[in-house]
Amino acid sequence: NAGVTQTPKFRILKIGQSMTLQCTQDMNHNYMYWYRQDPGMGLKLIYYSVGAGITDKGEVPNGYNVSRSTTEDFPLRLELAAPSQTSVYFCASTRTANYGYTFGSGTRLTVV
Amino acid sequence: EDQVTQSPEALRLQEGESSSLNCSYTVSGLRGLFWYRQDPGKGPEFLFTLYSAGEEKEKERLKATLTKKESFLHITAPKPEDSATYLCAVQVQGSSNTGKLIFGQGTTLQVKP
Predict the structure, then answer these.
(1) Do B43 and A106 touch (CB under 8 A)?
(2) Where would I find the beta strands (DSSP E) of chain A?
(3) How far, in Å, are A72, A87, B32, B67 from residue A43 at the CA level?
């Protein structure tokens, strides 16, 4: 099994550009999450989904958007990129709400 | 406000030198406490979940314990391959049906041969 797959691994964006970070999982997990990780700050929750068609905001949702049309895919959309969105982005999934996450390998995004 | 604090930020050990990492939490109600290991350039890897004070879990050289205010990750006779960043996260009451976690900032462990 591939687990959680994130693409791309690296990306440089110019201020004002938009992009979509892709996340797909092959474990039939209902619960999926997007976190960002900044140095010394820990992981912060951006958006999450408890099943196909259901999404909700996390702690730091501004500037981002998500959709969950299938169980497998949970893309994160950045509109009008800003330098403050420079970070490492992790997608994660879990089979039940009380179980440990399986993380993807991350996307390192730089906005210049 | 729910909060998770890990200490120390960084820890250097000699191979075989046992030590502990601390995770203290202030939350409205604890549903579960999670430990993850993160290697450089990779996503975190799940280690343990603890649910109630007094609970302990072990995996190889790692043992996690939980009290009402903090958790410890004890590393016994560490090896260089134990070098990584260790993340602590809590799930609070009321969010247990969403799976949301609040993460600490991590402790970076370096074990020298």
Answers:
(1) yes
(2) 4-7, 10-13, 19-25, 31-38, 42-51, 54-57, 64-66, 76-78, 87-94, 102-103, 107-111
(3) 22, 10, 17, 23
Chain B, residues 62-91, CB within 8 A of chain A, namely 87, 89, 91
Q: For the beta carbon of residue A70, count every other beta carbon within 10 angstroms.
A: 10
Q: Do B105 and A40 touch (CB under 8 A)?
A: yes
Condensed to tens digits (0 to 9), the pLDDT of residues B73-107 reads: 999 999 999 999 999 999 998 776 899 999 999 99
A105 and chain B in contact, CB less than 8 A: yes
Query: Which of A43, A40, A104 lies closest to B108, judged by CA?
Result: A40
The CA distance from B89 to A11, in Å, is 28
Contact A92 B96 (CB under 8 A): no
Nearest residue in A to B97, CA atom: A97
pLDDT digits (tens, 9 = 90+) for A42-81: 899 999 999 999 999 999 999 999 999 999 999 999 999 9
